[in-house]
Amino acid sequence: MAFSFVLHSHLPYCRGAGRWPHGEEWLHEAILGTYVPLLVLLFDLRRDGVPFQISVGITPILLEQLADPDIDRRFLEYVDDQIGRAEADTSRFAEEGSASRAALASFYVDSYRTARDNYRRRFSRDLAGAFADLHRTGHVDVLTSAATHGYLPLLDAASVEAQLRIGRSSTRRLLGVDATGVWLPECAYAPGLERRLEAHGLTHFFTDAKLVVDTASEMPAPRPEWDRSGAGLSLPLAKTGAELLEPYYVGDSSVAAVARHQAVSGQVWSAAIGYPGDPFYREFHRKDDQTGIRYWRVTDTAAGLGDKAEYSVGAAAGRVRAHAEHFLDLVAAELDAYRAATGREGLLAATFDSELFGHWWFEGIDWLGLVLRGAADRGIASTSVAAYLERRPPNERIALREGSWGKQNDHSTWLNADTRWMWDELAARAERLSTLRSSPPSDPLRARAARQAVRELLLAQSSDWPFLATTGQAVDYAIERFRSHVQRFDRAAALAEIGSDDDEAELRTLERVDDPFPDADLSAFEAGASVATLGGRAR
To answer: Which residues lie closer than 8 Å to 335 by C-beta, 6 or more apart?
Structure first.
């Protein structure tokens, strides 16, 4: 039996772009709540000799921020502030005679201090290096992604190429890893994308189950030159309603698609049936009105925030153990049923945003540890998808349906009446960059300005801005961030076209404000002829 946890780690570019409620504190909270505890868990499992493998995607733009010295410094300031707040609450609650809440505040003091110590000493303030270390020992298979989580099916062909090329380069530079798996931003796929992934040496990606189950049964015309797998084009086409426990080659490529198992994954993230909604788990949305620390439990998902009961660490721990056992029972039953029906060993992939664990679902890291330990005890092989495909490559092909994980499984969460203007703005800037690329500047300052224009366009292309605008989570912030990157692109492009040495100070300012992807340049947008069929097709 083979089971794979796939964690997708991503936050938009928020370096220096405000603090609470939107901005760099997004990242500080995720480091404290998710990335440090997750690494502690994985290092402990490795130390204890637990046999496990998981796949962890880390988007290049997140990696760039995790490696940024300014974010490192401000994160430690943030942790110290959280410790101070928890210490203040410990004293306040003790004075008020609330012993249980004072004890909970003291628990937070200890937790935050431990996280700070692990960050500084165990991981040497280098989270990217810690993930790379787990990859080297085979416990984590690192996945790459598009550079800034750009929504690939809606971008022009040259931008798709740049997002993939710069993304892989960033993963290689910061982790020393030539990733073979990729997390497509928003699980967004359009026919032809598999050929682009293949051209970059990528072997597999993850897709929403609906794009597999509802897939059409028609195959694209095979490419005569494709002959990598020996069996190659002779592999049969999977029928409509393909199994979710099988990987499939996509089209006529050697790139495999792996679907997330909705029922099993939904047991964790579903708002209706997911474990995080248990009454004894910590309530995410209610905070203390003085310090912002959380002291309440879910109680009832239908209850108002004012009706939440006090959180108990011990009571929550009991629920974690029960839910880990329930999850393992569910995984084993699914794999056993598949083997009984088909005679084959299936691959069950459960995919989640990493930030669910620890940050949104406070107890999630402990649950994950119990599941990985329990899987080893039960003989359920936890494997990375790359390792599974190496042992058992697909034996069928599929014509994957176009779409995403979003509403109605189409592109409408990102492209709609409220966001179309963003895509029009991006198309205009991509065209301007194309003109600049046709006659690249040789003057050193203007060449630097061109590289800055590349960075700004990539940052403007992030799928996060239209997503936040559509969902209403942070509309004004998303629009402001998008427009700021477009405006900085315009200024950098102008300097690349007509700039002089007198513009050095302005260019330095642009470079200080937005500085990821130091190796990005105009050549990244040069799409090869063999992969130039995708781009802008759904617009």
So the answer is: 1, 2, 3, 245, 345, 346, 348, 380
For residues 397 and 257, give the distance between their C-alpha atoms in angstroms, rounded to a whole number.
Answer: 9
**Which pLDDT score is estimated for 317?**
96
- Among residues 314, 337, 308, the alpha carbon closest in space to that of 243 is found at 337
β-strand pairing of 248-250 with 256-259? antiparallel
* pLDDT value of residue 120: 98
pLDDT on residue 163: 98
Q: Residue 55 pairs with which residues in a beta bridge? A: 6, 141
Structure-block tokens of residue 500: 């002089």
The SS3 call for residue 94 is helix
3-state secondary structure of 301: coil
Would you state the torsion angle of the CA atoms of residues 300, 41, 266, 211, taken in this order, to the nearest 10 degrees?
150
pLDDT digits (tens, 9 = 90+) for 455-485: 999 999 999 999 999 998 889 999 999 999 9
Q: What is the DSSP letter of 522?
A: G
**What is d(CA 136, CA 177) in angstroms, rounded to the nearest whole number?**
9
Map residue 417 onto helix, strand or coil.
coil
Name the CA radius of gyration of the chain, rounded: 24
The CA distances from residue 188 to 1, 193, 205, 210, 404, in Å, are: 29, 10, 11, 12, 4
Beta bridge partners of 8: 57, 353
Residues of the chain with pLDDT under 70: 1, 213-242, 271, 527-539
Active-site residues, by number, are 186, 353
End-to-end CA distance of the chain: 42
C-alpha closest to that of 436 among 421, 422, 449, 423? 449
Which regions of 239-370 does DSSP assign to beta strands (E)?
A: 248-250, 256-259, 347-353
Residue linked to tokens 């964790």: 268
Rounded (10°) CA dihedral 472, 475, 479, 485: -90
Run of H or E including 266:
helix 262-269
Cα(443)–Cα(188) distance, integer angstroms? 39
Residue 281 contacts residue 317 (beta carbons within 8 Å): no
3-state secondary structure of 424: helix
Residue 2's H or E segment, with its range, is strand 2-9
3-state secondary structure 435-467: HHHHCCCCCHHHHHHHHHHHHHHHHHCECHHHH
Helix residue spans in 176-208 (DSSP H):
193-199
pLDDT of residue 18: 78
- Looking at the DSSP bridge assignments, the partners of residue 206 are 258
Residues with Cβ within 8 Å of 511's Cβ and at least 6 positions away in sequence, in order, are 448, 452
pTM score, two decimals?
0.92
* List of long-range contacts for 262-270, beta carbons under 8 Å, 24+ apart: 262/209, 263/334, 264/327, 264/330, 264/331, 264/334, 264/348, 264/350, 265/350, 265/351, 265/352, 267/326, 267/327, 267/330, 268/327, 268/350, 268/352, 268/356, 269/352, 269/353, 269/356
